Amino acid sequence: MDAVTPPISRAVGGAGGSPPPIPVRVRVNGRDYAESVPPRLLLSDFLRHGLGLTGTHVGCEHGVCGACTVLLDGEAVRACLLLAVQVDGAEITTVEGLAPDAEHLHPIQQAFHETHALQCGFCTPGFLMTVVAFLRDVPAPSDEEIRRELAGNLCRCTGYQNIVRAVRRASELMAGPTPSV
Questions:
Q1: What are the phi and psi torsion angles at 15 (to 5°)?
Q2: How far from 143 is each of 22, 95, 147, 171, CA to CA, in Å?
Q3: What number of H helices and E strands is found in the chain?
Q4: pLDDT tens, 63-104?
Q5: Between the CA of residue 16 and those of 1, 40, 175, what are the distances in Å?
């Protein structure tokens, strides 16, 4: 930890009469971290305030809206429902870890862009992370399967039609080019 960055325990509420910080080791977006965190620090706050990964949005703080969805050991989870100490030893992927590099989008990001599946963008990281796990498990979903999977993510802007189109398009992009006959 460099001298400019305050310890996570102070930056997010571990000072004063709080219980002592607990050491946590975690791999986030391919990078290893070893930090001491307050026992009641939410994973969403650890990612946003501790590691500076602000793509993990916090909406409802009750696990209902899906804006804070990240991948925990490959599975989509709500970061606002987990404590940072619960993910000790785990691998986490946030929306910042999706694209292979600064020049290229992940196929799911590309599909959302192509189909105009976002407006304000607040819900988008949660949708993207949900779709990553979904398309891994169901590579060619029906519209009904897509709608059922996305039911746990809320969007107040789009009406969902373009989000469903984006998932369909992402499925196509991830399947690769169709061989010509």
A1: -85, 175
A2: 44, 24, 6, 11
A3: 6, 5
A4: 889 999 999 999 999 999 999 999 999 999 999 999 999 899
A5: 21, 14, 53
Count of structural domains, the chain = 2
What's the rounded Cα separation, in Å, for the pair 178 and 180? 6
- DSSP state, 60? S
Q: Are residues 64 and 143 in the same domain?
A: no
Residue 177: partners with Cβ closer than 8 Å, 6 or more residues away: none
Question: pLDDT tens, 30-73?
Answer: 999 999 999 999 999 999 999 999 999 999 889 889 999 999 99
pTM summary value: 0.86
44 in Cβ contact with 73 (< 8 Å): no
Indicate which CATH number applies to the domain containing 28.
3.10.20.30
Q: Are 173 and 131 spatial neighbours (Cβ–Cβ below 8 Å)?
A: no
Could you tell me the pLDDT band of residue 176, with boundaries at 50, 70 and 90? confident
For the chain, the 3-state helix, strand and coil shares in percent, each to the nearest 5, are 35, 15, 45
* CB distance 95 to 125 below 8 Å: yes
Helices (H), 5-106: 8-11, 43-45
Query: Which of 97, 116, 147 is the endpoint of a domain?
Result: 97
